[in-house]
Amino acid sequence: MRRVIPCALAVLSLLGVQSPHVHAAPSTTTVRGVVFEDTNGNGTRDGGEPGLRDISVTDGENWARTDESGAYAIRIDPERRETDLVSVISPDGYTPALRADYVPKFFVQVPEGGPAGGVDFALVPDRHAADPLETWQMVSDSETDNRSDSSASATLAQWTGQVAAMAKNPAATLTIATGDLTVTDYTGVPRRQGSYDILRKGLTEGRLGHPFYPVMGNHDAGGTSTATGYSASMEIYRRNLGPEWYSFNRNGRHMVVLEDNYDTTGLAPQLRWLREDLRRNAVGRQVFVFAHRSLFTQYGPGSAIQPLVDELAKYDVRMFAAGHDQQNEFRRGAFPRSVEINNMGATYGIDGARPGYNLLDFSGITDDPNTPQNEDVGYVAGDHRQFHLHGGVAVVSPAQSSVYQQFEKIPLNLYAEDDGRTPQHATFSVRDFLGRVVWREDVPFGAKTKPEGIVNCYAGESCPRAHDNWTTARSTISSLFFGTYRTEMVAYDTTGKPWPAARTTFRVAPPFALHPPRADGDWPRQGGDEQGSSSSRSDPGSVLDQRWTANTGEQFNLNGAAVDGNRVIVTSQAFASPYQQVLAYDLRSGRELWRTYLDGDVESFPTVHDGKVYLTTGVGRLYALNSADGRIAWQAVENEEQHGASVRRYGRMGGPLTVFTLAEQKRSVAVYQTFAGSRIACRDAATGAPLPGGFSAPGGWGEFHSTAVRQPGSSTAYLHSGSSQTAIAMDLTTCSQLSSVDTAGGLYSQSSPALTGDGQLVTMTASGLRGHDTRNDNKVLWYTKIEGSKCEPGPPQVTSPATRGSLVYVAAADGVVRAFDTRGADPGKPLWETPVGYPAGKSPMDDPWRVAAGCTGAAAGAPAMHALVTESVVYAGTWDGRLVVIDRRTGKLLDQYTLGGAVASALSVSGDWLFALTTDGTVHALAARDQRFPLPSLP
Predict the structure, then answer these.
(1) Which end of the chain is more exposed for a tag (fewer CB within 10 A), N or C?
(2) DSSP state for residue 364 in the 8-state scheme
(3) Tell me, what DSSP letter sits at residue 195?
(4) Mean pLDDT of the chain
(5) What is the mean pLDDT of residues 910-919?
C-alpha cells in the first residue's frame, strides 16, 4: 500500500489549510467489527460480554460510530498509507486490553486487501480510567539505540532499569511517553526494527504494569527503504506503536496525541481528523494534548502548526505536554487556564538535574461534584523524579558533630529520595547521653507551609498553597540543655516501607559559648563581583554548622542566592508546577520576608543592583523587582504573539540579566541573551526600555547561563554566548560586539567567564579551561583539556571557574577540583588536583543498571560544580549532595557536609555565612563555628 501525495496537497499542508481528498485511482475497503466490554480482561470476546454503543472508530481520516450492539463499519482507503490502522477512541472508565509490553490495543492493522474477518476492540473496565484524580507518569526521550551491538546492550539495560523504577510507584496508573522513544532516524535500515524491539523488551522485562501510551518523536521516524515520503517515514513506528495521531477519553477528560515534528506534510490531514475528533469527543470536557515538540518553538513545524492550535483553542485545553527540549518546565500554556509541560529526557538533560520523569497531579483542575465550592481553580501540577537514585537518605541537620548554642532553635531536616518510591513521613527521635528520649516527632514530607512575609501573587490569580518539596521533611528542635545528643531519623514511603535509619551525633553548648555569626558585605550576583571571580574577602573557613534552612517546594538547578543587606534572595525553577517564585529570607533567622510569583522558570542566579532584583524567565519575560518587598518595578516580554485565544512565545531566555552602572552616561544597562535569533541585547535598567544596538552571537540548543563580567568602571564587558559557544567582548555604551573567540562549548556548558586580578579572561567549557588575552581580542593564551564525567547519566553541567589574584580554581564534572596559576611557566598544569570521591553507596558502580549499561569503573568522584574561593579554602558543590571544603594552598580535602539534594547551584558568602542551594528546593544557611572557648571532643 502506498500513499500518494500530490504537490498541491503538500503545499496546502505546509500552509495548514484543509485540503480535499486527492488520490490516484482510489479504492476503498470496508472494515467491520465490534467494540465490546471485556469484563474478564482476556482480550477476546466471550459469551455475555456486551457491545458498547456510541464509540468512535477511525483510521485517522474516516470515522464511524458503533450502534447499540457495539458494531461498526468504516470505509477506508488502503492506498493512503503503506500500513493502514483502525483505532478506537476508548470511553471513560475503560482501558483497551494491553499487549505484553503494556501498550493498549486501541489500534489494529488492516492487512493488504482488507481483513479476512471482523476487527474487534476489547475495552476492559478500569476504575482508574474513571478517576479524575488518578496519577499519571510522563516520560520523554528514552532514545533506545540499536545503531550498534554495544549501544543496544547499554540502552536496553538503562531503559529496563528506568521502567523498573517507574513500576515501583504504586500511585501511578498510566504512563505516557512524549516522543523520541527510539533513535530510528539515526539507525541503518536493517537495524531500525531493533530500536523498537529494545523499547518493547524494556517495558516487558521492567514490568511496567499499567498502560503505556506512546507519542511519536522526530527520532522515531524511519521507513523500510521500499518507499519514500511522509507515510514511509512513519512506517516502522506505526507497525510497532500505532497511529501517529490518535485520541482517547479517560476520567471525564479527552486526550489528544499529535505528531508535530519537522515534516509538515501530515499537518493538513491531521487537522481534518482533529476537527472531527474534537467535535465528537471534546465538547464540555477538559482536553489534554500530547506531542513531542513544544508549541512555543520556532523550529520544526513552526507557524505551520497554528491552524491546529487555533482548533484546539476552541475547547477547554488544560495541558499541553511535550518532550524534545530535554529540560523540565511547567509553565502557563498557549491556551487560557492551561499549562505547558516540557519533560526532562530519560537519557539526558540540560538543566542540571539527572534524567527523570514526572508524576502528574490533576487535583488542581478537578472539581468535587459532592461539594458546593468550585475546586477547579488551579493548574495541572506534579513531581519531578530523577532516575538512578535508589533509596537515598541523609540527615541534613543536625549534621554529624555539629554544635548549637543552648536555647537556639536547631533545624531538623531529613532528605529522602528514590526514583520510584515516595517518602510520606519520618520519625525523629533525640536521645541524651544517658540514652533517654528527650525529643520525638513525626514529620510529613512535602508539608504545607505558611509564608511569613509579603506574598505577591501572579497577576489575575490567587496564590497557591505553599509547601515543601516532596523529598524534604523539616522541623526545629528547641529547649535542649547543653550536652551531647544522638538523633535517629527513619523515613517511610507511602506503602509504609522504611528507608534505612539515619543517625548523627551533635552537641548543645552552654550559653554564650559561641559568637553569633556576622554578615559582612553583599553578594549581589553570580560570582559575587563584577569580575565574576567567585572570590570572597570573608572567610567562614572549614568548620560550619547549619543555622537555618528554608524550602521553596520547587527546585534549584544552576541558580544561586544573592545577598542584599539582611536579605538572602533566591529564584526557583518550578519543575512541578507553573508557580515560579522569587523569595527573600532574613539572613540571620531564615524568616521569609517576601515571595513573588512570576511567569516562567527562573533558570539562573538573580542580580541585585541599586535596590532592584533583576532576572529573566524561560518564556521571554524580563523582570525588575523591588528588593525590599518583591513587588514588580517593571517587566517586559520579548517575541510574544497573540493568535485569537492562544499565545505563542518565541523569546525564550532564562539566563541572567546582568546590570552595570555606566558612570559617564549616568545610567545603568542590563545585558541579556535571547534564544530566538541567538541575540545579545540591552535595556535601560531603571525603566526596562530597550536600548539601541544588540547583536547576533553564536548560539545553540541549550540554556544560556552566562553572566557578563568586566573590570570595575570599564565600558567593555565579556560573556559566553549561547551554551558557552564563544567568549564575546562587547561595548556596554553601544551594546555592540567588539570581538568573538570560539570556546568549543556545548549542550552541557553552562558557565560564565571570570577575570583574574591582572585582567586575564578565563573560560571553562565542556572542551576545557582557557586563558584569554583581553588586550588582544580575547586571543587564547593557554588551554588545558578537562574530561567530563564517567558513568553519570545526564551528563552533569560544566560550571564557572573562580579566580583569586592570578590563581584559578575549577570544580569539574570529572569529580576533581583543581588549581592553576595563570602567571606560571605552564598555566595549564594544575598546582594541585583533589578528587572529591563518593560517600558510601553513591558510586556509579553501586547502581546495577549503570553497571549493566557499561559503567566499568568509578570516576575520581561525584561531578563537582561552582568553585568559590576565600583566603583559606575552596568550596564546591557535588552532584551527590555534598558541600566540600578544600585547603586553598595544598588541595587537601578538609571537610564535607551532606546537604541531601545535589548542589548544582552557585555558592554565596557573606561574613561568617555561606549559602548553598540544593536541587530539592532547600536554602541551606551555614555559618562558621566561632567558639569563645574550646569545647571537648564528641565521644
Answers:
(1) C
(2) G
(3) H
(4) 91
(5) 97
